[in-house]
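Quick one, tokens below:
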């Protein structure tokens, strides 16, 4: 076996070991959202936008497009951990095609934790960050509805 092949084998085995450790702590659905995040992008000129810094110092942004009081597009970006990616992915997925009030009622940290089958205690704040970011984007939408010109002054 060449040195390159040795190195490749080592890297592959290390990756498998890491994934095994992750599987002990997180449900399959968390790992799926983390590895295949849904709605991980920005939207230009969103109807609702928010950027929230979590208790850990990481930030999350959410972008909402509305049509007839229904969320037709909900996306996010984050510089946070893998769990924050999974939480943002699930939160935006839940909000998709929901009315303003449905999304507000549905996307709580408790709901994210329930759908994920729980998270380690140290990661609960990641679900709170996703929920808070979505709620603030919804609040921003309401604010912009009352004063539409103001959305052109915000930084997205
Ligand atoms: Fe900061 Fe998860 S969002 S650790």
């Amino acid at each position: 076996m060449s040195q390159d092949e040795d190195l490749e084998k080592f890297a592959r085995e290390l990756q498998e070991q890491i994934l095994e450790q992750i599987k002990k702590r997180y449900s399959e659905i968390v790992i799926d959202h983390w590895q295949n995040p849904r709605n991980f992008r920005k939207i230009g000129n969103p109807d609702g936008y928010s950027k929230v810094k979590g208790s850990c110092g990481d930030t999350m942004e959410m972008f909402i497009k509305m049509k007839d009081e229904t969320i037709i597009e909900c996306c996010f970006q984050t510089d946070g951990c893998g769990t924050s990616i999974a939480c943002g992915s699930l939160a935006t997925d839940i909000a998709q095609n929901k009315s303003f009030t449905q999304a507000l009622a549905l996307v709580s940290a408790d709901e994210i934790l329930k759908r994920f089958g729980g998270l380690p205690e140290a990661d609960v704040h990641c679900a709170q960050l996703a929920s808070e970011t979505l709620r603030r984007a919804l609040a921003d939408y309401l604010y912009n509805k009352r004063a539409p010109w103001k959305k052109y002054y915000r930084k997205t």
